[in-house]
Amino acid sequence: MDIIIASESLNVRQALVRQLMPSAEITVQALLKDPAELWDYCQQQAVDVVLLHAASATHDYLQTAVMVGQQPGAPAIVFVAEAQDPLISVYRQAALPFLYHPMATLDIVNRLRLARPMSAAQIERLQTDVEGGDSRAHLLCRRRTGLGLIPVSAVRCFVADHKYVTVEHEAGEDLIEDSLVQLEAEFGGRFLRLHRSALVARDSLRGIEKDLDGRVHALVAGTQQRLPISRRHLPRVRRWLKDAASPPH
Fold first, then answer.
1. Which keywords does the record carry (predicted)?
2. 2-131, what's its fold?
3. What is the pLDDT of residues 204-237, one digit of tens each?
4. Model-level pTM greater than 0.70?
5. Contact 75, 49 (CB under 8 A)
6. Distance (Å, rounded) from C-alpha 56 to C-alpha 54?
């Protein structure tokens, strides 16, 4: 049985691999610490079971579990929870298999033997919880090679165009299906509205300039984009730039 162990906690990863490595029927293929690593690995390698310890601070691993579970030939996923983990209620409501950490090695192996890929109903229930949870740290995008994850911290701006929203980020440009309204509601503290069709990351906004026709545009770090600023939003943008330039008291 080929498995991978995914957890942001080094202690959890090390403890689980120490328990499972001696088992003759289990091969631990990889130890992963980031949701994006889990997604990339499952796109490239066949695996039977993912042993997944999701940090309750964000829903990124849960979002990745939904993505992995929807792929053809998806592996089974067994979640790992500590005694007071608030995500236990999520697993129970979605009827998802989970085990407590720490747990006896034989019990872990038995759970892995019984693990099956998530059903459509389980995926739907988990997706509902992900959408209603805390703000994400990654965004799901569609690429020619399949789906991908973009760190929100790497995003410079969002620009709406018809059906999709273009994301300018440190590694390039991608399309996502989230609307600007949804993005602003979820990440309003990180991004600033410039126009009905544009949001900019506050820490990527470098200034504003006026063109020969008197229209005002935002200067965005790391890109040649000159994003239009509407009259409605211009006072707020100027106020934010002024506050950002002021020394802290």
1. DNA-binding, Two-component regulatory system
2. Rossmann fold (3.40.50)
3. 999 999 998 889 999 999 988 889 999 999 999 9
4. no
5. yes
6. 6
